[in-house]
TrEMBL record:
One of its GO terms (molecular function) is iron ion binding. Catalyzes 2 different reactions between oxygen and the acireductone 1,2-dihydroxy-3-keto-5-methylthiopentene (DHK-MTPene) depending upon the metal bound in the active site. Fe-containing acireductone dioxygenase (Fe-ARD) produces formate and 2-keto-4-methylthiobutyrate (KMTB), the alpha-ketoacid precursor of methionine in the methionine recycle pathway. Ni-containing acireductone dioxygenase (Ni-ARD) produces methylthiopropionate, carbon monoxide and formate, and does not lie on the methionine recycle pathway. Coiled coil: none annotated. Pathway: Amino-acid biosynthesis; L-methionine biosynthesis via salvage pathway; L-methionine from S-methyl-5-thio-alpha-D-ribose 1-phosphate: step 5/6. This is Acireductone dioxygenase. The gene is ADI1. SUPFAM superfamilies: RmlC-like cupins.
Amino acid sequence: MRAYYYDNLPGDQRLPHDYVPSRLVSKEILDALNVKYWVIPVEGHEPKVDALAKERGYKNRDLINVSKDGMGEIYEEKIKTFFQEHMHEDEEIRYVLSGSGFFDVRETPTDQWIRLAVEPGDLVVIPAGIYHRFTLDEANNIKAMRLFQDEPKWIPYNRSEETDVNPHRVQYLQSVGVGA
């Protein structure tokens, strides 16, 4: 996984949006935001992903194929939905099996976007309460395993005054040393 600051220039969300020169983001910054990641080679990944799932309490999983072929007529609508800034009340865990894409997370307290370029073998944990979004890159295809701590659910709460005071958001902010 490659992490860098998003350039915020207008244009296709599927482009890299990287500064020139690139402004890389360190593991220490991601750790401070509680964003976790591992690289687990796809070939023979099952025992390593299973061990990590057991260690972190992930009880359920499924596969998602975000592509025109995999999603059919809802593809364009879903891509727009995924790219709306939102948070979840649960961790978002993705292990990339094929293809590639971008997770963007808000750095706190600067509110800058950090782009996480993911590819096969990357396992990313986006913490509950962090504002983020997702998009494919120009290849328009990613197949990922979604892991869940409980029953599979994916409820996005778009950024608003209401989500700013959501208990999961407040807890996240406190966990990264922001807020009361």
